[in-house]
Design goal:
By secondary structure, this protein is mainly alpha-helical. The chain is 50% helix and 8% strand. The protein has helices at residues 19-33, 55-72, 75-88, 114-131, 137-146, 173-186, 191-202, 227-234, 242-263, 267-272, 275-288, 306-317, 330-341, 356-361, 367-370; strands at 5-10, 13-18, 150-151, 156-160, 166-169, 210-212, 215-216. Helix 3 crosses helix 4 (114-131), helix 6 packs antiparallel against helix 7 and helix 6 packs parallel to helix 9 (242-263). The longest helix has 22 residues, at 242-263.
């Protein structure tokens, strides 16, 4: 199934907008935003309100520019994508030669932005590294991923600070999944990374705990410790309760898994054995629909682009999970994302958000809608 277009309202007129047009409209504006060193405007991590370096958004834009080049064969987009990746591998972004410097210093937080900061940074390096083996992209991605110790007892990775010092075992589910996906891809050339990624996905169901039927917990915890640990996690942070986080990040978790499925069709469900869990997670979202799911949740739609992420997951896995998508189709979810947050006057997905630079960069997630055959 190939997702081609979406019907949306632009200037009060209902028109058909293809995903290609969405990508290209953003990419054209993005060319004007790129500065001489190849970097793109930095954000503040949405509702987390942590000032970021340009690493994260530059990585996202590299993917958009690369897809724009593949659509048009216009080399200005290829040059922009390469400039982004050249910036990423420059010394200033790994100032100590270890992990990427993703987040500016904030009290109580690391500068590497945990596992997710590194996963986002290496994502375009793996993509363009395949296409440009003469560039140091793949090697840099491999080196950074390999710096992170894998805990074979807890079946997940420990984060590493930009000075090389080890951080704790990351219990944020989406971060572990995204890092594992990048390790799996890099594992094409690194047997150790592939082995750890296979182990992680083989034990993935152990990390799933549901706050209610279909809503997976944002945080992983050791189930054998039981209710005592779970209660502490529920009270993890005032103002960002676990249920709100879990709703806001559920589509991001599914999208990370969809990326792996798109690259290795049929592999995810074979290795991870999480068919029932994924079905319940998608059904939880679909039951509420695009008009009700994550409404007024600061982590959904205006930060994690829920509509794009759900559409991607549905296109890649709903058939295998035997999900009836006739009530709400992938187009319905994409429509909702565009209607709410794409500014057609400016040409970027930056409306209705506290962090326009990050949301505009995250339009890159729509490139996976083009890849599903």
């Amino acid at each position: 199934m190939l997702f081609a277009s979406s019907m949306v309202f632009v200037d009060n007129k209902r028109i058909e907008v293809s995903v290609n047009q969405l990508i290209l409209k953003s990419a054209r504006v993005g060319l004007r935003l790129q500065i001489h060193d190849g970097s793109m405007p930095a954000g503040k991590s949405g509702p987390w309100n942590n000032p970021e370096t340009p690493v994260r958004n530059t990585a996202h834009w590299a993917m958009t520019f690369q897809k724009a080049f593949e659509i048009t064969r216009d080399k200005q987009y290829l040059r922009a994508a390469i400039a982004c990746c050249d910036y990423l591998v420059s010394g200033e972004n790994r100032p100590n030669g270890f992990t990427f410097y993703c987040r500016k210093k904030v009290a109580g937080k690391d500068c590497s932005n945990g596992l997710i900061g590194q996963a986002w940074a290496v994502e375009p390096l793996l993509l363009l590294g395949e296409k440009h083996p003469d560039k140091p992209y793949w090697g840099t991605a491999d080196a950074v991923l390999s710096l992170h110790p894998y805990d074979w007892k807890q079946h997940g990775w420990r984060a590493v600070e930009i000075n090389g010092s080890p951080l704790g075992f990351s219990r944020t589910l989406n971060q572990q999944i995204w890092f594992a996906a990048m390790a799996f891809i890099a594992g094409e050339k690194n047997e150790d990374l592939r082995a750890s990624a296979l182990d992680f996905f083989g034990f993935l169901s152990n990390h799933f705990t549901f706050l209610e039927p279909g809503l997976v917990c944002h945080r992983m915890f050791i189930k054998s410790l039981g209710k005592r640990v779970f209660t502490r996690l529920v009270d993890w942070k005032k103002g960002n309760d676990l249920r709100s986080l879990s709703i806001g990040y559920q589509s991001f978790i599914l999208y990370g898994l969809a990326k792996l499925e798109n690259k290795y069709p049929g592999r995810l469900l074979t290795v991870a054995r999480i068919r029932d869990e994924l079905r319940s997670m998608l059904e939880y979202i679909l039951r509420k629909g695009p008009n009700d799911y994550g409404t007024n949740n600061p982590f959904a739609w205006s930060y994690n682009p829920t509509g794009i992420e759900v559409a991607c997951f549905m296109q890649s896995l709903s058939d295998q999970l035997t999900i009836d998508s006739t009530v709400y189709s992938p187009a319905d979810w994409l429509n909702a994302q565009i209607q709410r947050h794409f500014d057609w006057q400016i040409g970027l997905m930056q409306a209705g958000t506290s962090d326009p630079d990050v949301l505009a960069a995250r339009v890159y997630e729509a490139i996976d809608l083009l890849a599903i055959k």
